Amino acid sequence: MVTPSLPAGKRRPAIGGRFRSPLTMAMAAGLFGASAWPAGATPLSPSAGVIAGLPVSVAQGPSQASPATLYQGGDILTMAGPKPSYAEALVEKGGRILYVGPLAGAIKAAGGGARQVNLAGRTLLPGFIDAHGHLVLASHTLLNADLIGVKSIPELLGRMKAHAATLPEGVWVEGLGYRAEQLAENRHPTKEELDTVSTTRPVFVQDGSAHQGSINSVLLKQMGWSASSKDPAGGVISRKPGSSEPSGHVAEAPVFAVLAAKAPLTPAQIRQGVGKAVALWAANGQTTASEMGFGLSDDDINVVRQMLDEKLLPIDLLLFVKHSFLEQAKAGRSAVVAQYADPASRSPRVDGDGRYLNRVRLAGAKFWMDGSMDNAYMSQPYTNNPPGNTEKNFRGLAVDPQAAVEATVATTWKSNRQVAAHAIGDQAVDNFLVAIEKAYAAQGPADHRPIIQHAQFLRPDQIVRAKKVGAITSFTAGGIYPMGDYLARLMGPERVAWAGAAGSVQRAGIPWTIHHDMPAGVSPSLIYALWNIVNRTTKSGVVLSPQERVSPYDGLRALTINGAYQFHEEKSKGSLEPGKLADLVVLSANPLKVDPMTIKDIQVVETIKEGTSLYRNPSLSAGATTTASVPGSAPINEKDNCLVPHDQPQKPLSPAQQATLERLLGPGR
Ligand SMILES: [Zn+2]
After folding, report:
1. Contact (CB, 8 A) for 66 and 550
2. Dihedral angle, C-alpha 639, 640, 643, 649, nearest 10 °
3. Which entry of 55, 214, 293, 604 is 20 to 30 Å from 118 by CA?
4. How far is the CA of 517 from the centre of ligand 1 (A)?
5. 333 pLDDT above the threshold of 60
6. 526: Cβ–Cβ under 8 A, 6 or more apart, which residues?
């Protein structure tokens, strides 16, 4: 995990109740250049509430009494409607969008004393919605060694040793983010290798999926796993070749068991971790975050309690509770509801959305229908097994018990609690769809919007079924470039054509989203995810099933209005329309007006939540451009070129493909 480059602001004495550093004030003043504003208007003043990498209590947006802010001077892409529409100006007041339209009307609407922002040719969009991330989990993992991009086991061990040197004695040494298939050794580290980091304290590394990893001898002993212990249900403790002695590598259930065995985080660690996570999300333009596995760690309840009690969040957070943790979460919720029974103890919300408490909303339940890519549950065996896996007719792993999934879907179908399922393989998708179809058949249609998360191998027939029950598909788009070739090897050409089938889902009329899945996934940047879903170019330069590409505008919808729809928040978020929250992101360029292959170079210039600026890009001063890479992104090979030119229409389907698609997606079904 890479900590974003944020303004090097330190917490200063409060000025007028807010924290400001000279640096952030200077950047605010210079960011959009000199304003071409009619005479008599107020000069540009810095907006308040800069995070600068530290958690600050800015849970409330600006009050109704604060002056309006008028944005103009760049593309204002409203994201309202199926085709791009632009406005000349936007006015924010009291945390909401007051006006969108021609400048003359905006000046009138803003009134005297308005703050003005000249976008200086940059692009204003609705703040991005993180359709599937793990902000709570990241609050722990960002305290660990960053293993993203390591190329060999010695390099991985080097980063772990350097991190260990910064920790007090006795604290676990943890790292996250390597990819076994990207290591020179093409395997996970062994316990002996991790023992070189420490033989006295636990050492734990997780790969980029967070579903697999390795542990050292101390931790194996602490977990009670030896040659004589059995693999737990829903997981694997790998053994040395020709022996039953654990090798150190663990997958699925044992990984979560290790996470559960950690010592609780201290309040200071939680404050630091939440601050890092929020800063990372805000630096990537995200004004609504999600935790798609609340309960993955025993610390989660403490982290969320502290978020509530100390009002640590300046952005919104949706929690989806890990299914097996549901009962504990319900008990925790009762305690929270009792504690915050007095409305005066809650921060008021600009949009009056009573589902939120101090920016946190318990939105639903989350299932795991299968494992990571290497354990995706397929209806047919893998074409080639993942490295190190010699199982015949390997089809991956089912994780959560089907009966429990069906029971929870049935009890929540007509409630205001959503369900979301991790489903990568087509059999995993099938099992989730069966649970939804049973609820639909027994109880009738509902505006439930169940979410098929990852949806990596979504068969054409499953798209039809998803449409019928009102399911949403959310794609882990950022994996296409780094992992597309690997997927093709694992699954073969026919099934790889289903991979991340955004084009088919779009044509079927299903609202779909894309997500980063941090701290799993490859990059916290949703712009990088957008670049992937639009271009679908893999590392080898191949375009993965070109018919599944989508337009940049539809890709942007996946990050904004569709994200809001996915979470039942489209009335207050996702587009720039009067009355909605002033959740905004300023980009260095308009993704609709650049060569699609350069979308990944677009930078987040500023992130604004309900009118309050949370992040400003320190490398983009007035009028300057930068070629700095996206924070935390996977290394990108600039020499790659796409085999299908983007200035030509997408390749038409063959008559047979077209006929199949029409049959599957036809309106009569
Ligand atoms: Zn996830």
Report:
1. no
2. -100
3. 55
4. 5
5. yes
6. 128, 130, 284, 285, 286, 514, 515, 516, 559
User: Alpha-carbon distance 463 to 659, whole Å?
Assistant: 15
Distance 471 CA to ligand 1 centre (A): 18
559: which DSSP letter?
Answer: H
Question: Pick the residue with more confidence: 659 or 267?
Answer: 267
Show the tokens assigned to 87.
């406005």
CB 515 within 8 A of CB 131: yes
Ligand 1 centroid–CA 66 distance in Å is 39
Nearest to 102 by CA among 116, 118, 86: 86
374 CA → ligand 1 middle, Å: 15
Query: How many angstroms is it from 245 CA to the middle of ligand 1?
Result: 31
The rounded distance, in Å, linking the Cα atoms of 251 and 372 is 9
Contact (Cβ atoms closer than 8 angstroms) between residue 219 and residue 277: no
The pLDDT assigned to 445 comes to: 95
Report the separation in Å between the CA atom of 399 and the middle of ligand 1, taken as the mean of its atom positions: 14
The DSSP code sequence of 277-306 is: HHHHHHHTTEEEEEEEEETSSTTHHHHHHH
Q: The tokens of 329 are what?
A: 């979460």
Statement: residue 1 has pLDDT above 80: no
C-alpha span between 129 and 465 (Å, rounded) = 26
CA of 114 to the centre of ligand 1 (A): 42
Best CA proximity match to 468, nearest among 440, 442, 503: 440
Kindly write down the DSSP assignment for every residue of 519-544, as one continuous string. TSSS-S-HHHHHHHHHH-B-TTS-BS
Ligand 1 midpoint to CA 457 (Å): 16
Q: Assess contact for 321 and 290: CB atoms under 8 A.
A: no
Tokens 């924070």, residue located: 631
Look at residue 507 in the predicted model and tell me its pLDDT: 96
**CA 645 to ligand 1 center in whole angstroms:** 33
Give the distance (Å) from ligand 1 centre to CA of residue 134. 6
Q: Using the 8-state DSSP alphabet, how is residue 618 labeled?
A: T
Q: Which residues pair with 639 in a beta bridge?
A: none
In the block, tokens 């677009």 appear at 602
Instruction: Using the mean position of ligand 1's atoms as its centre, give its distance from the Cα of residue 370 in Å.
Output: 12
Six token digits for residue 132: 């599937």
Gap between the Cα atoms of 302 and 272, Å rounded: 14
Rounded to whole angstroms, how far apart are CA atoms 473 and 323?
A: 19
pLDDT digits (tens, 9 = 90+) for 54-99: 333 333 445 556 789 999 999 999 999 999 999 999 999 999 999 9
Residue range 112-165, pLDDT digits in tens: 889 999 999 999 999 999 999 999 999 988 999 989 889 999 999 999 999 999
Contact 426, 462 (CB under 8 A): yes
Non-local (6+) Cβ contacts of 29 within 8 A are: 44, 46
Of 423, 581, 515, 543, residue with least CA distance to 129: 515
The model carries a pTM of 0.78
d(CA 513, CA 186): 32
Percent of the chain with pLDDT over 90: 64
Sorted by sequence, the CB contacts under 8 Å of residue 494 that are 6+ apart come out as: none
Domains of the chain: 144-260 (3.10.310.70), 369-570+639-665 (3.20.20.140)
Task: Give me ligand 1 centre to Cα 631, in Å.
Answer: 19
Q: Using the mean position of ligand 1's atoms as its centre, give its distance from the Cα of residue 325 in Å.
A: 16
